[in-house]
Amino acid sequence: MATETQSYIGKRMKRPNAVPRLTGFEKYTDDIQMPGMLHAAYVNSTYAHARLAGIDTSEASAIPGVVEVITAADIPEYARNDSAMDRTFFFLASERVTFVGQPVAVVIATDPAIASDAASLITVDYEPINAVVHGPDAIAKEAPVIRPERQQEKPDQHPNLSAETVFEQGNVEQAFANAAATSDFTMTTASVHQGYMEPRSVTAAPDPTGGLTIWTATQGQFAVRTAVSQMLRIPETNVRVEPVTAGGGFGARFMLFEPLVGWLALRYTKPVKLTITRTEDFAGTTPAPEKVISVQLAADSTGKFTAVRGDLTFNTGYFSKSPFEPAALMLGSSYRIANYAITTREVFSNRSGTGAYRAPGLPQVAFALESAIDDLAHKLGISPLEIRRRNAAAGGDLMFDGAEWQPFDPQPLFDEVERSPVWSEPTGPNEGVGIALGLRRGFTDSASANVRLNADGTVQVVVGSMDLTGTTTGLTQIAAEVFGIPPEQVQVTTANTETAPHAGRTGGSKILYTVGNAVIEAAGHARQQVLAIAASEMEVGTDDLELQDDRVTVRGAEDHFLTLSQIYTRSTQPGTQYPPVFGHGNQANSVKAAAVSACVARVRVDPESGHVDIIGMMTVQDVGRAINPSEVEGQIRGGVLQGIGIGLYEGLIYDEGGQLLTGTFMDYTLPRTVQAPSIDVVLIEDPSPHGPFGARGVAESPIIAPAAAIGNAIFNATGARMTELPMTPERVWQAIQAR
Amino acid sequence: MYPAEFDYHRPGSVADAIKLLQDNPEAKLLAGGHSLLPVMKLRLAQPTALIDISSLSELSGVSEDGDALVIGANTTYHDLMNSSVIKNKLPVLAEASDLVGDVQVRNKGTIGGAAAHADPASDLPAVLLALNAEFKTVGPSGEKTHKATDFFVDMFTTTLEPEEVLTEIRIPDVSNVAGATYLKFAHPASGYAIVGIAAVKTASGEVRAAVTGSVPIAVRLSAVESEISGKDLSDDNIAAAAEKATEGMDFVGDIHASDEYRAHLTKVYTKRALKKIAG
Questions:
Q1: A668 contacts in B (CB within 8 Å)?
Q2: Contact B240, B252 (CB under 8 A)
Q3: How confident is the model at residue A83 (pLDDT cuts 50, 70, 90)?
Q4: Which residues of B189-203 are buried (b: 16+ CB within 10 A; e: fewer)?
C-alpha cells in the first residue's frame, strides 16, 4: 500500500473523548436529572421456577413518596406476553417466574431510595416448581418444562429444546476409522457476563404532543426506536432515542427495559428513570450462555486433520438469544477439514436469557477445538505450531456453511509467533507454553454518514453509530485523511435517531469497517464541493487547487487562496450562488472480511495449589490496516484480558435450585489490573479489499484464543488437560491429581 | 444499591459511644466501614443506627509500652504499613496489612474493625492469634482484656458484648519474636483469604501458627504447634508438622473453594509459612 502518502491514517492519535471520560466529566444515563423525574425500582423473583400465587403491595404503596406499584395486572395485555423470546418485550411475570432476578413488579417513587425501600416491602407468594439450571439436564426426560407453550408448537421434540442445527459433509466414520491419531474431549464452559462497568439504566420522558424520548446507552439506537415503537404501539416518528455514552457494552448493551420505562413515562406524563443494581444486572440481563462442547478430531500420520465431530449444547436460559449456530460453525471452519458432522442446539433453562458477548461463543468453541488440536499434536509428536501451520484455513477455503473465506493468510502470523520470545524461549520448571488460533468472519451492514463545513472552517462528521471502542477517533482520522485537513479540525458526532444518518448496530467488529466507508465517501463528496466553490471563486480549474490545513490554495501561487471559513461564508451568505457544503456517503459493504489472530500464553503453575501465573502473553493479529495503532493495540489487549478472564476467572455460578451465587464483583472475578499480565501485541497489515484503507474489524478476534492458549500452556507445563472453564486453581489442582 | 434507612451518630468519646450503644440496641459501630457498608448496601444488614467512631482519636495510633506494642482499634491498615514502630519491631503486621483488600480498603479499614467483625476470611485475626495478641474492650461494666484465643469465637462472632467497644490491641513480648510471616492464597475477586497462615517463631524456641480463611473462624493450629514444638525447623520436621494442619479442624467449602481443597491448601501454606520463618 502507498501508506507513505497518508498523513493521518496509521498515526497514534489520542482519543478526542478521553479527557471527559478520565476526568469524570462524561455524563452517563444515571447522571440524567430532570424536574419532576420519577424513579423506578424492580421487585425480582427470588425463585428460579415458581407459580405466582399473589403479590401484596399494600405496605409498599403506603410509603410516602411511592407513586404506584405496578404488577402484571396493571400492564397492557400486549406486555403480558410470557412467550416473548426477548426480555425487552417482557415487562413483568404474570403467572409464573422462570429465573431468579425476573421482574415481578416495579415500584415508582419520587426518589430512588424510596423506590428501593418500597420494593423491599413487597411480599410475593411463590409456589415453587422444580428448576433446571444446566443445559444437558434441561433436555433430560424428567426435566421441568420451561416454556409450556412450546409443547403445542413443537410436540415432536423435547419442550426445552429451542432449536438444533447440523453441519455435515463427507464420510466422518471412515475418516475416524483410518485416523493415525484421534482426540476426544467434552468441555464444560461457564456462563460469563460481559462485565461492563456501568449497570443498565434507561430514562424516558414524554412530551405534550405524545412523543417519547428515550435516553439509553445502546449499541443500536435505531433498533431501540423500532422496538419501543412496536411494543408501545406508537409511531416511530413519536419515539426519539438519544444515545448516551456507554460504560462498556461488549455485545450486551442493545436493549433491555426501554419499552417498559417508555410506557411508565407515558403513564405518568413525567420523566422516569430506572437504573438496576449490579446484582440485578448479573441476575437478569443477557450473559454469554453456559456451554457443553464435545469435540472429536482425527488426523492422519502427517498431522493433516481428516475429520471432526462436534456436539454443542448452549444453555440459553429463558430467552432465546444464544449464538449456537454461528459459534458451532467455528468448531472446525478455521481449519481445512474435509469431513465433518456437527450438531448444535440451544436449550431453555431456569436462568435469565443470554446474548452476545464479544465474538459470541467463539472463546469456548476455540477452547474445545484448540485443545483437541494440541492433544493431536502431542500424540503425533508434531509441534503445536507446525500442526496449525499445516491445517489452518486461508482465504478461498470453504466454511462449514458453504461460504467462502474472504482473503486472509494465517502463515505470517505463525512466522511472528515463531519470532516471539513468549513462544520460543526455553521454559523453566512448572512452566509451559501454549498456542491457539482466533479466527472470525466479520459482520457487515449498510451505513451512511454526512460531512459539512462549519463557519470556522472545521469539518463536522455526523454518524448514527455508537462509539463503544474508540471508533470516533478512527472516523476522525479517516475524514481528515480524505478531506485533507488535520484531525484537530474534524469533529465526529453521533446524532440521535431523529437526525442521524442510518448505521447498523455497533457489534460484530464492523463500525469502522462499514461506517468508515461511508465517511470516506461523504468526506470526499464534501471535499469536491469545496474545491468546486474555490475553483469558481478563484477562476481556476479544480485540478490546479490544493486543499491543505485550513485553506484551498492555487498550486504554485501561495498567496492565491481561500480559507475553508471563507468558503463556508461564500456558500451560506444570503443570495449566494453556491449550495452549502454537505457531503454524504451511503454504502452497503456486504463482504464479510476475515479477522485472524494467534495467541501464545506462557504460564507457571504452582503444582501444590494449582495457581496459574501468566508469565508471558502475545497476540498477533492481521488488522488489515491499523487506522490508529494505539486504539487497535488497546482494543486487542482488552480482548486478550477478557479472554484471560474467561479462561481463568469468570463464571456465573448457580446452585441446583437456580439461585445465582455470584451476584457481585466480590464473587464474580472480572480480571483487574493486578490480574493483567504484560501483553505483547504484534500487528500485521494485510489489507482487506473492502475495508476503509484496507482495515479489517479488530474487536472480536483477540478474545477468541487466549483461554485455549492458556489451557494448552497448562498442559505443556503439567501434563494435565483442562476440560472446564474457568480453569480455577482448584480445577487445575484436581487435573494435576488426576493425571 | 441503597441501604435501608438508618440514624447516624458521631460520639465524641468512647464513653459516649457506649451510651449510644445502650440507647440503640440495633445499632452498629462504624469504623472503616469496608465490611459493614457493602452488606448494608445489599440490605443483608439493616442496623437502625450507625455510631461512627472513626474520628475518635483516643482509639488511634501505635505506641510502645515496655516490651508490648499497643495498637489503637482505629489504626488503619495503611497506618500499620507506614508506622515506623511496626516496621522496626513487628514488620509482619505491616506485611500482612499490605495483603489486605485494595488501596481503598487499606486506607479506610481498621485493625479493630476487622477483629470485631471477625470475618472468617479476614487476614489479621490469624496474625494476631499467632502473636498472642490481647484485646482490650470497654463497656458499661468497665474494661476487660481477652486473649486472642478467647476473643475469636465463631464466624462473625467474638466475645465482644453488644454494648462494648474494642479499644486497643496489645502485642506482648515483642522482643521475643524471632521470625514471623503471613502467607495467603487469596480469592482473586475479593482479595479475601481462601487460606491464610500466620507463623511466629520466638527467641525462646516456641512456634505458633494460626489459620484463617479455610475454617469458620481464625484459629491456632495447635496440632501443628505441638508437633513442631521442641524440634528444629528442618524440612522433614516442617513437612510432618504441616501434615497435622488439618487435624481436628472443620473446613468450610463454598463456591470459591471446596472444603477438601481448603484443607489441602491449609497444609501447603502451613508448610510454606513454617519454611519461611525457619529462614
A1: 189
A2: no
A3: confident
A4: bbbbbbbbbbbbbbe
- Contact between B2 and A661 using a beta-carbon 8 Å cutoff: no
The pLDDT value given to residue B238? 98
ipTM for the predicted complex comes to: 0.96
Half-sphere exposure for B97 (CA within 13 Å, toward CB): 26
Which of B38, B188, B257 faces A730 most closely, judged by CB atoms? B257
Question: For position A4, what pLDDT does the model report?
Answer: 56
pLDDT-derived band at A141 (thresholds 50, 70, 90) equals very high
User: B267: distance to nearest CA of chain A, Å?
Assistant: 10
Asked if A666 is an interface residue toward chain B (Cβ–Cβ < 8 A), one would say: yes
Distance from CA of B255 to the nearest CA of A (A): 8
Residue pair B183/B274 in contact (Cβ under 8 Å)? The answer is no
Identify the pLDDT of residue A152. 84
**What's the pLDDT tens digit per position in B176-222?**
999 999 999 999 999 999 999 999 999 999 999 999 999 999 999 99
DSSP B259: H
Say if residue A2's pLDDT is above 80: no
pLDDT for B167? 98
Q: Using CA atoms, how far apart are residues A371 and B61, in angstroms rounded to an integer?
A: 56
Taking the C-alpha atoms of residue A322 and residue A365, their distance in angstroms, rounded to an integer, is 13
pLDDT at residue A34, rounded to an integer:
97
Cα A731 to the chain's mean position, in Å?
28
CA distance A559 to A553: 8
> What pTM was computed for the model?
0.97
How far is Cα of residue B221 from the mean position of the Cα atoms in its chain?
Answer: 15
User: Under the phi-then-psi rule, with left for phi > 0, alpha for psi from -120 to 50, and beta for the rest, what region is B66?
Assistant: left
Q: Which residues of B touch A42 (CB under 8 A)?
A: none
By the CB < 8 Å criterion, does B6 face chain A?
no
Is residue B1 pLDDT above 80, yes or no? no
Distance (Å, rounded) from C-alpha A18 to C-alpha A27? 13
The residue to which cell 500452556 is assigned: A713
Give the Cα separation of B170 and B168 in Å (integer): 6
Lowest mean pLDDT among A26-30, A105-109, A728-732, B1-5: B1-5
| Closest listed residue to residue A133, CA positions, set A45, A192, A46, A48 | A48
3 state SS of A144: coil
Region B75-103: mean pLDDT is 97
- Show residues of chain B in contact with A675, CB under 8 Å: 188
Which residue ranges form the domains of chain A, and what is each CATH number? 18-25+444-588 (3.30.365.10), 32-129+200-275 (3.90.1170.50), 290-442+592-737 (3.30.365.10)
Angle at A602 between CA B187 and CA A378, to 5 degrees: 115
Write out pLDDT tens, residues B147-156. Answer: 999 999 999 9
The per-residue pLDDT of chain A, averaged, comes to: 96
Task: Tell me what the pLDDT averaged over chain B comes to.
Answer: 96
The set of residues, in sequence order, having a beta carbon less than 8 Å from that of B85 and lying 6+ positions away, is B62, B63, B64, B69
Peptide bond into A243 cis (omega under 30): no
- Rounded to an integer, what distance in angstroms lies between the CA atom of residue A230 and that of residue A244? 22
The pLDDT of residue A592 is above 70 = yes
Domains of chain B: 7-52 (3.30.43.10), 57-171 (3.30.465.10), 177-278 (3.30.390.50)
Q: Please tell me whether residue A109 adopts helix, strand or coil conformation.
A: strand
C-alpha–C-alpha distance, residues A699 and A494, integer Å: 20
What is the C-alpha separation between A645 and A666, in angstroms, rounded? 15
